[in-house]
Design a protein that fits this description.
Elements (H helix, E strand, L loop, with lengths): L1 E4 L3 H18 L4 E4 L6 H12 L9 E4 L1 E3 L10 H8 L11 E2 L8 H14 L5 E4 L21 E4 L2 H7 L13 E4 L2 H5 L3 E6 L5 H9 L17 E5 L9
Parallel strand pairs: 1-10, 2-3, 2-6, 3-5, 6-9, 9-10
Antiparallel strand pairs: 4-8, 7-8
The chain binds fructose -6-phosphate (F6R).
Pathway: Amino-sugar metabolism; N-acetylneuraminate degradation; D-fructose 6-phosphate from N-acetylneuraminate: step 5/5
EC number: 3.5.99.6
Keywords: Allosteric enzyme, Carbohydrate metabolism, Hydrolase
Length: 243
């Protein structure tokens, strides 16, 4: 695990965007793994800026998102598919249908999860996966107690994650869905390069466990210690509990 402590979110954006730009320069048809949430925004903003200047194109790339709430209507602004479109996908030049996410409104949830895994495999697997981390150490929505061998499936969100995400639902924790579909830890571990971004002191404990704690389902991000190519981009506050 390579840990890089950078000055601020803007620098994280530049270093993170370099990884995407280099990959797409070498392999324009690369398969990207996209996370929603605040952590990757500086990377996405920098990629949009470079795209607008002609420095990077996503026209031949494909992408898979990590997770989706269950039960939000298709046009709900906080549905993760709408969030990632707004934050990133619609601001660059992905081809139509090049970006997929788990279907949180599927009638047959287990079949939708299986199909999602098959689609990732059919695309040849993810070349570069960007991740955030939850304050409880979750990655995607693999909450504490998630199987380290898990694949895409339905999960119950913890109270803590619903509280953390209430800011997107008018500060009303009861408006945050109780369930999600999420790539599993084994799905994420199959990506060839994982880049995790964390900023702020609220993430410091989770970052400490991820990098220095014992590998345990109670801190799901610790599984990344077993991945051969992980880059962790931190600001000084998120690095504050590293030894
Ligand atoms: C989002 C996701 C989550 C977030 C995590 C951190 O697709 O998979 O694991 O990365 O909850 O969220 P932020 O970045 O908003 O602090």
């Amino acid at each position: 695990m390579e840990i890089v402590i950078l000055e601020d979110a803007a620098e994280i954006g530049r270093v993170g965007a370099d990884a995407f730009t280099d990959l797409l320069g070498r392999r324009p048809q690369a398969v990207l793994g996209l996370a929603t949430g605040s952590s990757p925004l500086s990377v996405y903003d920098e990629l949009v800026r470079r795209h607008e200047q002609g420095g990077v194109s996503f026209a031949q790339a494909r992408a898979f998102t990590l997770d989706e709430y269950v039960g939000l209507p298709k046009d709900h602004p906080e549905r993760y598919r709408n969030v990632i479109d707004r934050d990133f996908v619609d601001r660059v030049d992905f081809a139509p249908d090049a970006v997929r996410g788990p279907d949180g409104s599927a009638e047959d949830i287990p079949a939708a999860c299986e199909e999602y895994e098959a689609a990732i495999a059919e695309a040849g697997g993810v070349d570069l996966q960007i991740l955030g981390i939850g304050t409880d150490g979750h990655i995607a929505f693999n909450e504490p107690g998630s199987s380290l061998a898990s694949r895409t499936r339905i999960k119950t969100l913890t109270r803590q994650t619903r509280i953390d995400n209430a800011r997107f639902f008018g500060d009303d924790v009861d408006a945050v869905p109780t369930h999600c579909l999420t790539q599993g830890l084994a799905t994420i571990m199959a990506a060839r390069h994982v880049m995790l971004v964390a900023t702020g002191s609220g993430k410091a404990e989770a970052v400490h466990h991820m990098a220095e704690g014992a590998v345990s389902a109670m801190w799901p991000a610790t599984i990344l210690q077993h991945h051969p190519h992980v880059t962790v981009l931190l600001d000084p506050a998120a690095a504050g509990r590293l030894q």
